[in-house]
Amino acid sequence: MSDTIKFMLNDELREVSGLSPVMTVLQYLRMHENLTGTKEGCAEGDCGACTVMVGDVVDGVMSYRAINACIVFLPTLDGRQVVTVEHLESASGKLHPVQQAMVDCNGSQCGFCTPGFVMSLATLRQNNPKADREAVQDAIAGNLCRCTGYRPILEAADKALRTKKPAVSGDVKKLAALKRKAMFSYEGQGGKFFAPVNITELADILAKYPKATLLAGGTDIGLWVTKMHMPLPVIIYTANVRELQKIKKTNAALEIGAAVTYAAAFDHLAAYDESLHELLRRLGSNQIRSSGTLGGNIANGSPIGDGMPPLIALGAKIVLRSKTGTRQINLEDYFIAYKKQNRKAGEFVEKIIVPTLPKSTLFKTYKISKRFDQDISAVCGAFAITMRNGKIEGARIVYGGMAGTPMRAVHMESYLNGKTWTESTVQGAMAILTQDFAPMSDMRASAEYRTQVAQNLLYRFFIETTDTEQQQRVYSYGA
Amino acid sequence: MARKTLHHPATGAAGQAIPHDSAILHVTGRATYTDDILEPAGCLHAYILKSPHAHARIKGMDVSACYIPGVHAVMTWRDVPGANDVAPVFDGDPVFAEREVLYAGQSVLAVAAESIEIAYQAAQRAVIHYEELPAILDVHTAIQKKSFVGDTYVMRTGDSKAALKKSPRSLSGTLDIGGQDHFYLEGQVALVTPLENNEIHCWSSTQHPSEVQHLIGKVLDIPEHAVTVEVRRMGGAFGGKESQASLIACVAALLARKTNRPVKLRLDRDDDMILTGKRHDFHAAYTVGFDDDGMIRSLDITHAVNCGMSADLSNAIADRAMFHSDNGYYLSDATITSYRCLTHKVSNTAFRGFGGPQGMLVIEYIMDEVARVLGHDPVDVRLANLYDPMGRTEKRCITHYGMKVEDNILGDMIPDLQKSSSYKKRVAEIARFNAKNKILKRGIALTPVKFGISFTLTMLNQGGALVHIYKDGSVQVNHGGTEMGQGLHTKIIQVVATEFGIDHTSVKITATSTGKVPNTSATAASTGADINGKAAQDAVRIIRERLVDFAITEFGVKRTSIRFADNHVHIGTQKMPFVDFVHLAYVNRISLSSNGFYKTPDIHWDRATASGRPFYYFSYGTAVSEVVVDTLTGEYRILRADILHDVGRSLNPAIDIGQIEGGFVQGTGWLTSEELFWNEKGVLRTHSPSTYKIPTARDAPADFRVRLHNGENREDTIYRSKAVGEPPLMLAISVFLAIRDAISAVGNGVVPHLNAPATPESVLKSINDVRARSS
Predict the structure, then answer these.
(1) How confident is the model over B223-241, as a mean pLDDT?
(2) Domain A5-86+170-237 and domain A246-476 have a common topology
(3) Mean pLDDT within A424-441
(4) What is the pLDDT, as a whole number, of residue A170?
(5) Where do the domains of chain A lie?
(6) In the predicted structure, residue B205 carries a pLDDT above the cut 60
(7) Nearest-5° angle of CA A319, CA A325, CA A330?
(8) DSSP string of B169-232?
(9) Is A71 an interface residue toward B (CB < 8 Å)?
(10) Which has more confidence, A471 or B247?
(11) CATH superfamily of domain region A5-86+170-237
C-alpha cells in the first residue's frame, strides 16, 4: 500500500500519487502544475534555471534552501514546502524586493535564467540579509546567465538586500503536521521509494532490498535518470534519517552524519583551514551544497569529488553500518578502484569522523579547475604534514583527479617523512610524483597539465607555509 | 486600456533608459517561452536519434523495433515528402542523414511519441548498420585533402610580398582560435500544430521565422502561404538560432504532418550542444612587415576556417573574418586568404560577431607582438596604425576591400579611455608588482574595436513593420525582428512612442509572425534596431500623415501647426488627447493601420572583385583589461575592465550598456574558459555545463566600468543610433592580451605564444614555453 506524497506547493497542500518516483520536481511543476516559471536549462544541476526554494521546519521555524529542481525527485518533497517563482509576489501583486531590484537594475535580458536567479537571491535574502558581495557571488555561483555579464544582477542583489522584509513564509503548523513518524513508502508506475526516518528502519529496508539505490541529496543520482535514463526500480532515501543528520564536535574529532549536507557541514569543516573554506565554497554550487551530502559524495566513490582529498589528508575515517552491525575504516581504504568501493550489500555510510587538526600539523588544500566556481576539478590536492623536531613526520598527501579514485601519494609521502621542510626537499618530492600517478587526459585537462599542477601544488603548500608575505592564490585576490 | 486623458510629457521616448518591456514578466516567471506554451490536446513529443560516428556509411536501417506502445511515428529521410534539406543558402544540411553520416551527432531519424521518454527509448531500438569511414577532423588535413565547403577567397590591397621585402623588420607566427558554443539558456525548441488544408502553424525559438517558414514549406512540399511561424521571445540566441532552429522546426513539422497531431521537439542541453553548430574555430598564420616605430608596412594573413560538414553560413562568416582583419588599422599592402575547410564535425554557424571576432583577434595579436618585439607600449603602436579620420589625410582611410572609413573616432576614444582608466600609471604599477612577486604576475592590455554594420549580402538589409492604432488609443506593433533578450522590442516601442508622442506603455509588441510581416531577414548582424526601427518609423509616419491630412480638413489648420507630443495631438493653438483624436479619425473612416518598410541605403558589394561598401557604417569601442595570473597553475582573474563604447545616440542607454557588458563577458568566455573538446574519434566531450564552462558571476571583472561614447551616427540611422549587438563581444580581446602581457613577465622579453581559449592549461603551457625560451 503506497503512501501519497504530501507536501506544500507554495501555500497549498498537495497529495500526489500515481507518478513515477523518479519524476523530477521540475517535471512535476511544469507538466502537472503548469508552473512554467521554473525552467530547464541543463537537467543536471549546473545552470540554476530550475532553482526553487525548499522549506523544512527546523526547531519550530521554517528553514529555506535553494535547490535545483531538475535533479531532485518528487517524493523527496514529502513533508516539505516547495516555493516557486510564481509565489514570490505578494497577494496584492507587489513584487518581491529581489524581483523589483532585478527590474530596476536591468538584471534580465532574455529572462530565461531570471527566475532561477530570483530564487537564489530571494533565498539568500531570507537566510542572510546582510550578505556581502562575496556571499552574493557564492549564492549565485550555480546560476548561469549568458546575456547580462552579471554586473546588473550583482547590483540588484545589493539593492534587494538593503531593503526590509517581507520575506517568504510558510505555515509551520501545517508543515509540521506532515512530518512522518515512520518510514514513508511510495510506489508509482512500478518504481518504489522508501524514506526511513531512523537508522533502524534504514538498515531494515536496505536488508530487504540490498540492491536498492541509496539516495541522499541526489546531486549525482538525479543525473543517472535525467542524463543516462537508468531505471532505478527501488530507491531508499537517506535524508530523512534522524541519526544521519547529526554533527558532533568533540576535542578529538568532528563527527558528521552521512546525510548532513555540505551546506550544513560547511562551517565545521571550514574551521580547519581557510584553504578548506575556499575549497568548500567552490565545491559545486550553493544549490548543490544545499542538497548534496558528504556521505553521498563518499558513497558514490567519484574520483573527482572535491571533498575527499582534504578529508583523507586530515585522516578521516568512516563508519559503515548494516543490520548486522558497524565497522570503521580509513576513508582512503573505502575507495578500491574506479567506481568500486569497499561497501557490502546491506551496508550504508553512517558517519564520517574527522580528527581535530593537531597544532603541529600544517594543512592546506587546493582546487584547480578551468573555471573558478561550480566546476569539477582537473586536480584537487590536499596536504598535511606534522613537524616534530624540525623534521616531517606522517605526511599525508592526497590528490583527486589524478587516478580512478582519490588517492594518497605514497611515494611522495615516504620521501618527505624524516626530512626537513625546505625548498630542496619539496623539489625532490615533486620529482617523485610521477611514481605515484599517471593521470589521464580528458576534456578537463591533459595528463601533462595534471602532473605539473599536482607538483606545483606541493610547492604552493611549501611557500604558503613558509612565506606568508606574498599572496599566492588568485581566487581570493583583491577580495 | 481605459480611455483617459493624460496630461504629462510622454514617457519612454527614444533615448530614455526604460527597462526591458518584459522585465516584470521575466522576474515573475510569467514570460512565456516556446516550451511554456500550454500544449494542445494530443500533443506528441519528438526525439532525434543522432549518429555516433563522425563519418560513416549507413549500410542498413531497421526501425521496426521502434514501434513500442505510445509511439506514433518514426521518420527517416525516406519519409520526407519534400526536399530533405534545411540548409540556409547552399544545399547540404539534410534533415535526416541519407546514405552517409557526416558528423557525430547528425540527425538520423526521429520518433514522435506520447512522452519524451517513450520517444527516447523507442529511438534507441532502431537498428542501424554503420560502416565507419576515415574522418577529416582538423583544418590541416582538410587543406591537404582539398576538402572545402567553398572556394578559397582572397582580399588584396597593394602588394604585400613586395612591401614585405622593403619592410625594415618582419615576423611570422600562427594562432589557433577555438570555437564557442552559444549556450543560450533556452535550448532549441519548436511546437507545431497541423491545421486544415495542409496548413501548418509553428512556434519556433528562432531568430529567423521567415527561413523556418520557407524550410517547413520546402520539406513538406507546400507553399509558404500555408505556413505561419511565430516567436514571442527566445531565451537567448546569439546567432545559434539563425539557421540552426530550422532543423528542429522542420522535424516537428514533418512529424506533425505525418501523425496529424501537434508535435513538440525540444532538444535537451546535451543534444542541443552535440547536434547544433557553433562558432568557427580558426587556424591563422601571419607574416607582417613593419618599421621601427611599429608602423605596419605589409601584412599577409591566412585563415583556415573549420566550417564543419556543410557550408551553412560559413562563407559569409569567413568573409566577415577577412573584412575585420584590419580592425581599426590602415593596411597599405595586405593579402588575406581564407580556406573554408569541410571537416566531419558539426556544421559551424553564426555566433555574435559572425567571423569578425576571429579576424579581429588575429590583427590584435599581431599588433601586440609587433609592439613587444620593438619594446613599445602596444597602445602607441595601435594609435600609430589607426585609420586617419576622414578629412585629415585622405590616403590612410581606405580598407583592404576598398571601402572608405569616413568616421574613425578611435583616435579620440583610445586616448580618452587611456586617461580615464589611468592606463599609464597602472602599467608602471604592474611592472613594480611583477618585479616584486614571484608567483603572481599581472598584465594589462588596451584594444579597440571597429565593426562593420550591415549584412554583407546586400539584399538582406531590409526590414518591415506593421502598426495598428486601436480605437482606445492603444498601439500594437509588429516588425520583422525577433526578441532574444537584446531589448529590440523595447527599442521599437520607444521609436513608435516617440513618433506618436505617446507613453511607451501605450505601445505593445506582440509575437513576431510571418503572417504579419513577410519575407524578413534574420535578426542578426546587429541590424535589428536599425532596419526594423526605421521600418516601424516609416509605418507610423504613414499613419501620422493620414491623421495630419485629416486634421487639416477637420480643423482647417496648416500642416506645420500639427504636432504629436505629450500624449496629445496639438492642432494649432488647441490640443486634443491622442486617444480622442484617433477615435475621431476612426469615426471619420481614416485608416489607423499601416505597414512600413526600410532598406539600408548606399551599400553595395562586389564579391568577384572583393571591393565595395559592404557596411553602412562602423561601430567603435575600446577596452582596457587588467588580469592577474598564477604562474604555478595558469589560473587568472580579471581585476578590472574599463570600456568606452560607441552606440551613436543611444536609443536606450540601459539596454545598450547591458549589451556591452554582456557581450564583453561572453567574449571573455570565448577567449578563456570555454573550451570545446572533441575526442580522437570526433565526438564532442563538452556538451553540458558540467564540462563546458561559460563565465559565472565571479568571472565578470571585479571592477567593471562602462561608459558610452558621446556622439552620434554620421549616417542617417534611426535617431542617429548605432548597432550594439555584436561589437562589444570583441572588447574581450583586451582580456586575452592582458593575460599574454602577464605571461610575458615570467620571461626576459621573449614574446609569449598563447592560443585561444586561454584556459589555465593553455596559460601554463605558454608560461612553460616562455621560461624555456628565456633560459
Answers:
(1) 98
(2) no
(3) 97
(4) 81
(5) 5-86+170-237, 91-162, 246-476
(6) yes
(7) 25
(8) EEEEEEEEE--B----SSPPEEEEEE-GGG-EEEEE--S-HHHHHHHHHHHHT--GGGEEEEES
(9) no
(10) B247
(11) Beta-grasp domain (3.10.20.30)
A415: helix, strand or coil: helix
Please give the CATH number for the structural domain made up of A246-476: 3.30.390.50
Q: What is the ipTM of this complex?
A: 0.97
pTM: 0.97
Q: Do B185 and A463 touch (CB under 8 A)?
A: no
B539 to chain A, closest Cα gap in Å = 27
Q: Which residue of B has its CA nearest to A119?
A: B27
Beta strands in B471-587 (DSSP E): 475-479, 507-509, 512-513, 562-565, 568-571, 574-577
The pLDDT tens digits for B257-308 are 999 999 999 999 999 999 999 999 999 999 999 999 999 999 999 999 999 9
**pLDDT tens, A192-211?**
999 999 999 999 999 999 99
User: Over A322-361, what HEC string results?
Assistant: ECCEEEEEEHHHHEEECCEECCCCCCEEEEEEEECCCCCE
CA distance readout (Å), B361 to A328, B381, B733: 58, 16, 6
Please report the residues numbered 174 through 233 in chain A whose beta carbons come closer than 8 angstroms to any beta carbon of chain B. 227, 229
User: Distance (Å, rounded) from C-alpha B638 to C-alpha A474?
Assistant: 10
Task: pLDDT band for A120, please (50, 70, 90 cuts).
Answer: very high
Q: Do B185 and A39 touch (CB under 8 A)?
A: yes
Chain A contacts of B351, Cβ < 8 Å? none
B747 touches chain A (CB under 8 A): no
When pLDDT is averaged across residues A34-42 and rounded to a whole number, the result is: 98
Contact B630 A473 (CB under 8 A): yes
Nearest CA in chain A to B683: A443
Task: Among A96, A109, A426, pick the best mutation site for testing chain B contact (most B Cβ within 10 A).
Answer: A109
- pLDDT tens-digit readout, B8-53: 789 999 999 999 999 999 999 999 999 999 999 999 999 999 999 9
CB distance A125 to A119 below 8 Å: no
What's the pLDDT score for residue A478?
46
pLDDT tier at B394, thresholds 50, 70, 90: low
Q: Residue B587: exposed, middle, or buried by beta-carbon count in 10 A (0-12, 13-18, 19+)?
A: exposed
Whether the CB of B36 is below 8 Å from some CB of chain A: the reply is yes
Closest by Cβ to A368, choosing from B30, B633, B690? B633
What grid cell was written down for B337?
586568404
Nearest chain B residue to A453, by CA: B633
Amino acid at B475: V
Q: Select the residue of A151, A152, A472 nearest B440 (Cβ to Cβ).
A: A472
- The runs of H, that is alpha helices, within B8-104 are 23-28
Counting DSSP H helices and E strands in chain A, the numbers are 17, 20
Interface contact flag, B28 A86, Cβ < 8 Å: yes
Q: Which domains does chain B have, with CATH numbers?
A: 23-31+462-599 (3.30.365.10), 386-455+615-774 (3.30.365.10)
- Does the beta carbon of A35 lie under 8 angstroms from any beta carbon of chain B? yes
CATH fold label, A91-162: DNA polymerase; domain 1 (1.10.150)
Q: Residues A309-349: pLDDT tens digits? A: 999 999 999 999 999 999 999 999 999 998 889 999 999 99
